[in-house]
Amino acid sequence: MGAMTSTVAAKFAFFPPNPPSYRVEEEEGGRLRMTDVSERENVDVLKLKTKKGTEIVAAYVKNKTASLTLLYSHGNAADLGQMYDLFCELSIHLRVNLLGYDYTGYGQSTGKPSEQNTYADIEAAYRCLLETYGVKEEDIILYGQSVGSGPTLDLASRLSRLRAVVLHSPILSGLRVMYPVKRTYWFDIYKNIDKIPLVRCPVLVIHGTADDVVDYSHGKQLWELCVEKYEPLWIKGGNHCDLELYPEYIRHLKKFISAVEKSGRLKNMQGSLTDNDSKPRVSTDCREKSRPSTDVPEHSRPSTSTEKSRTSVDKREKAKKSVENVEKSTNAVDQPEKARNSIDRFGGMMRAAVLCNIDCFKPTGATGS
Q: Where is this region: Disordered (predicted)?
C-alpha cells in the first residue's frame, strides 16, 4: 500500500515559478512591499503564519466601494507577483476587496508545497480576513482556479455562512485529471467531487470547452453536484489558462457578484439565487442533488497537481479588444472612470503573466510538446 501511495503521489507535482517573480522588502516603519510590481496605495502586503509552521505572503487589495471580499486561490504554476495585476484589475471591475496569497513554497512563502499545506494556507488567509480586516464570513466569496479549487472547496465545505464560491477550471480530484476513474480512492488528492455537495452557498462554475489540461467535464460534473447552483459559464473554445481573455468571463463574473451582493444571502435563506438554473450558457443535463451539510475531517493526502500554458499572442490580442469593447458598452454608466480606463491594460497584463506549466498534469517521465 505504501508503495502504491508513493507511485501515485509521484505523478503529481507543484510547479512554483523558479525563480519567484517578486521579492518582499520591509520599508521604514515596518510596512512590507513587493518588488517588480507596480506599487499601489490600496494594496497591503502581508506575511501570515500557518498552523503548519510556515509563513506565506499575501496581498490585500482594497476597494472603497466594496461590500464583499474575494479570497482568491491561484493556479499551480503561478505566484503572487504574476497574479498581482490581475488581482488589482478584478478588484476594480468587480468592486470587491480581494485577498490573494501564495501557497507554502511559492513565491516568497516559506516551506515546501503539499496538499495539506495548501489547506493550512487558505485557512491562514481566511483568518487574516476575519481578524485583521474584520470581514464577516457571510461577506466572503471564495475563488479557486484549477488546483486552487482544492483548498477552496475544502474550506467552503466547512463554512456554513459563506456568501458564495467561484470555481474556475476546477478539478474533480487529482487522480481524475489523469485517469477516468469512477470512484474515489483513499490515495487520491483534492477530492473535490466528495466535498462539493457539502457547500451550502451559491456556486458559479467557469470552464473552457476546449480545456486540454482539465477536461470541462470536470466543471460540468461539479456543477451538477452543487446544492445551490448558479448559471454556469462554459466558454466555447476556451482553454485552461486563457478564460480571463474572453469578454463573457468578466461579464458573467460581474453578473454573479452583483447577484450575490443584492441577495444579502445568509445560511437560512430559502430558494435559488438565479432564475436561470436550468439554462446554462452551453447546454448540459441539470440534476440537483441536495445532501446534508457536515463538517469534513482532515485526512492525510499526498502531494499535488496543476496547469497548462497560454494560447497564441494573436488570440490574446483579439480577446483584449473584445474585453475592451464589452466594458465600454456595458459599464459606461455603473463603472467608475478609473475602471473603464484600466481595462485597456487587461490584455497586456495577461500577456505578461506566465500562469501555467505545460506538463503540470502529466505523469513523471511523460513527454509533451
A: 268-340
Q: Using CA atoms, how far apart are residues 80 and 84, in angstroms rounded to an integer?
A: 6
**Site of grid cell 466547512:** 158
Is 121 noted as a catalytic residue in this protein?
no
Encode 127-185 in three state secondary structure: HHHHHCCCCCHHHEEEEEEHHHHHHHHHHHCCCCCCCEEEEECCCCCHHHHHCCCCCCC
314 carries an active-site annotation: no
As to burial, measured by CB atoms within 10 angstroms (0-12 exposed, 13-18 middle, 19+ buried), residue 340 is middle
The full length of the chain comes to 369
Selecting among 102, 240, 242, 359, the annotated active-site residue is 240
* Tens of pLDDT, residues 262-288: 987 443 344 445 444 434 444 333 333
CB-based contacts of 135, cutoff 8 Å, min separation 6: 69, 97, 129
SS3 of residue 97 by DSSP: strand
Out of 114, 146, 305, 342, the active site residue is 146
**Cα–Cα distance, 106 to 13 (Å, whole number):** 13
| Residue 44 bears catalytic tag | no
Residues 30-40 pLDDT 10s: 899 999 999 99
Which residue is it, cell 457571510? Answer: 138
Give the integer Cα–Cα distance in Å for 25 and 110: 15
> H or E stretch including 339?
helix 337-342
**What are the cell numbers at 251?**
461579464
Compute the distance between CA of residue 358 and CA of residue 311 in angstroms, rounded to an integer: 11
Q: Could you tell me the CA-to-CA distances from 346 to 88, 149, 300 in Å, in that order? A: 10, 24, 40
The candidate with the shortest Cα–Cα distance to 175, out of 363, 332, 350, 324, is: 363
